[in-house]
Amino acid sequence: MFETTHVVYVRLSSGIWIGTYKPIGIITLPIALKIVSDRCSPAAVRRLGKTMYIVICNPHGNTVEPEAAAFLASASGIRGIAAAAIVAPDHVTWQQGNAVVEVCMPGIPAALCQDISAAEKWLRDVMLANPHGATVRQKQVLKLVEKRFSHKEIAFKLGCKKRTVETHLYELQHRFGVTSVRDLIEAARQTGLLPLLNGSSS
Predict the structure, then answer these.
(1) What is the pLDDT, as a whole number, of residue 97?
(2) What angle do CA 156, 162, 167 make, to 5 degrees?
(3) For the chain, how are helix, strand and coil distributed in percent, rounded to 5?
(4) Which of 132, 145, 136, 135 minimizes the C-alpha distance to 181?
(5) What is the number of helices (H) and of strands (E) in the chain?
(6) Which residues pair with 11 in a beta bridge?
(7) 3-state secondary structure of 159
(8) CA-to-CA distance for 193 and 127, rounded, in angstroms?
(9) What residues are paired with 19 via a beta bridge?
(10) Mean pLDDT, consecutive 10-residue segments, the chain of 202 residues?
(11) Which DSSP category does 196 fall into?
């Protein structure tokens, strides 16, 4: 278990983390910033790892303000998260009783789930399909960098800021333990995140 100011994290045997919000009341933007800052602190990264597959639970009925929700779903807000399953039974029952409903969250696979069991099962499937832990947006950035687009061009294509592109690349370099984009591309090819070139590179 690892506890921060607003969230308690518990690791399951599958390697998936359950992040349970404490009784907060209203999650404002400053609180959302603190949640992410705590999660990305050096102490937290040592315990939680560089990339998390996480079940997010809000059993105390905390209300999330729109600005806070937008930040938590942004590239900065999802730092260190590869996929998120949000336990939201009321939302799921609207979808004809499905246990899992995939939702659009920029950059990572995300879903609303009936309960923790359904959330863990969905995340297990995501982990099998993405063993490297890279987010959807990080893969998009990496593929465009491999094609030699500039950071500015990538930002324009993906509809984000240049700084966001640089953040994605920094996090990928950190995950692969390399210090240059060239080495990152090579490591991504060797691990299957990018396809290997046929023959020698030119």
Answers:
(1) 62
(2) 130
(3) 45, 20, 40
(4) 145
(5) 9, 9
(6) 17
(7) coil
(8) 13
(9) 9, 56
(10) 96 90 96 95 88 89 91 86 86 65 76 91 83 77 93 92 89 82 89 70 42
(11) P
